[in-house]
Structures are given as C-alpha cells and as structure tokens.
Design brief:
single chain; alpha/beta; Rossmann fold; 2 domains; 8-stranded mixed β-sheet; 15 helices; binds nicotinamide-adenine-dinucleotide; binds SN-glycerol-3-phosphate
Amino acid sequence: MAKKKKVSLIGSGNWGTVICKILGNNILCNEHLYEKNLPMFVKKELYNGIDLCDIINEKKMNKKYMPHCFIPDNVMASSDLLEVTDRADILVFVLPHQYVREICETLKGHVKNDAIAISLIKGFDVYGNKLDLISNVIRSQLNIPCSVLMGANLAYEVALEMYSEATIGCKDEEVGILMKKLFQTHYFRIVVVDDELTVELGGALKNIVAMGAGFSDGLNGGHNTKSAVIRLGLMEMMSFSKMFFKDSKMSTYFESSGLGDLVTTCYAGRNHRVAKEFASNPQQTLENLEMNLLNGQKLQGPLTAAEVACVLKLHNVEGRFPMFSTIHKICSGEMPVSSFMDCLKNHPEHL
Ligand SMILES: NC(=O)c1ccc[n+]([C@@H]2O[C@H](COP(=O)([O-])OP(=O)(O)OC[C@H]3O[C@@H](n4cnc5c(N)ncnc54)[C@H](O)[C@@H]3O)[C@@H](O)[C@H]2O)c1
Ligand SMILES: O=P(O)(O)OC[C@H](O)CO
C-alpha cells in the first residue's frame, strides 16, 4: 500500500480557515490516502487576551478571522511553522501575498525534496525592480513544483457551502487530478487547466480592478458604470498578461479564475468594500479603513496596484494601462478619488 501523504496548511485567515474546513473534511473521507491530522500554521497573536491557536484547537473555530466556520477535529493549529510543515508531502499556501517571501525564507532547507505545493494566494512579488509570480517565489525558494488554485471564491460564501467554482492551474496532469480530489466538494467545483500562469495572473490582477469597482460605486456610479470598469479592467488584465508574460493564454480568462473572479470581487469582495467606503468618505485613509473594517484581514488590491505600477513605469507603458495607473495613483494619494470617473470617460478607447 502506498505511504499516506501528509498535507500541511500555511495560513489561517479568512480564506485559510475555510480551506482548512474543506481539506480537513476531505482528508477524513480519504484516510487511506492521507495522514489524518491536518496541521495548520497560525501566526502567533492574541484574541481577547487568549492565544488564537488555543482558541482554534479548543473551540474548533477561528473567532478572529472566520467566526462561523466549523473547523474539523483533525485540524491541528500551531504557531510553529517548521513543526507544521515537518515531513509534509503537500504544502498548501494561503496567506496574504506580502508575507510569502518571509515565510519561504523560514522554510528554506526544511522541506522534503519530493514535496509539492499549491498556492491559493492572489498577488505578485516584487524583488528589486522585478515583478514575479507568488508561485515562482515558492518554486525557487523551496525548489519544489507549485500549482495554483484561484477562482470566484468569496470566503464567507464558500463557508456557507454556497455553490462556487474554482480553477486549478497545474502543468502536471497527475498532480492536477490529485489536487482536484483534495479540494473539490459537492459545493466547491473545480476545473483543472494546464495554464497555471494565466490562472495566477487572473487572481492577482482582478484585485486592482475591484478597487476601481469600489471607487465607482462610492462615487455613485451605476450598474452600467461598473460594467465599464469590469470590461476595461479585463482588457487591461489581458494586455498586461500578453505584454509581460508571453506564454499566457487569453482563453484561460474565461475560467472561474479570470472573468468569474473579476465579477464576484467587483461586487462583493473586501477590496470593493473598502474602496467604496473610501470613495464615499475620502477624508479617511485606505489604511485606516482596512484596519477598521477588516479587523486584521488584509487588502491585496492597493499593494498589487503598486507592484504593477512599478513595472509599468519601468517599461514606460503607463499610458497603455490608464485604469491600473489611475487606481494606483488614487490608492497612493497622488490623485483624488474623484478623478476615477474621468479615467473611465477619457479611456483611450473613447477618444
Ligand atoms: N478571503 C477571501 O475571500 C479569499 C478568497 C480567495 C482567495 N483569497 C486570497 O487568499 C490569500 C489569503 O487571504 P485570507 O483571506 O486567508 O487572509 P486574511 O486577509 O484574512 O489575512 C489575515 C491572515 O494574515 C496573517 N498574517 C498577518 N500578518 C502576517 C505575517 N507577518 N506573516 C504571516 N501571516 C500573517 C494573519 O495571521 C491571518 O491568518 C490572499 O492572497 C487572498 O487574496 C482570499
Ligand atoms: O475579498 P477580496 O476582495 O480579497 O476577494 C476575495 C476573493 O479573492 C474573491 O474570489
């Protein structure tokens, strides 16, 4: 009989907690394939004076980041990253993108040679002036293959078991099948494609457009206005992919990780919510709104906009990405949020 695989989960935020429910339950249903316990890394912090890790292990609930999601008994929370990942065969990364490099630094040299990874993280890495995929940071730092899972997946809806789709991007067919079996449930349906590059690009870039959708709603734009934001945003996402990632396939934008995620995030994500509040109330800063509205959860849009803007500037192509550039300038305080409507009206397409 084949040796049982050990799965380890790195991350325990809003999405990370829902994923621990899915993985924990799927592992329990497949105990012949997997070690029963699912260790989960929880960054050390106190919640109402009590260690969050202890709360998760005792109450089987992540009271801070996803309070209504039941955590299966086989999930074992720990703040010791190397203990969580010790002997792991499958490493699942689900944490805000800005922390990946530091997590990989700690893991370097401690991961099995034949381990595989999957990243559920939406964002980019910028090192010096070089923009890179998060999965590439995992691949290069840990020297293991890494597939990706992205999609129209608002965590609270998946927690409530509302029907949702997701896309796994994986070049290795066998690993793609294994990952699909590990993550799929009756309410979380997965399509596997081999274009892991564009799956990840969709997940990262839509967070910039979602900020624009929030600005539009906060400035009293209508449904037609938001449709324009989504359409122009998708065009910039595709142009960016073609320009900077030559192997990216445009057809992949029709998967859940592309158009699906873009639509859902522009209507109901955290980026949209905070951006809308900011546009209605511009004397507040985005940082304050993130802190006050999200209670420790992290916005990925403003950082991703800054990461992308850095590359556009370096290649002197900001003018070809007017929406990305304007969203970054609004997020960084270089332009007032009221200028967002002018960006739409004066988009090069309409001149
Ligand atoms: N929440 C969603 O609906 C959702 C859905 C799909 C994908 N995602 C993506 O999944 C990724 C993780 O999102 P999330 O919602 O689980 O996280 P989150 O936004 O809830 O962030 C909170 C988490 O970040 C951790 N954290 C804070 N500082 C840290 C540090 N210095 N080092 C390591 N971890 C630290 C906290 O411990 C906590 O677990 C993101 O890239 C996000 O875009 C989120
Ligand atoms: O809440 P957001 O804006 O981070 O988006 C969450 C997910 O990425 C939606 O698929």
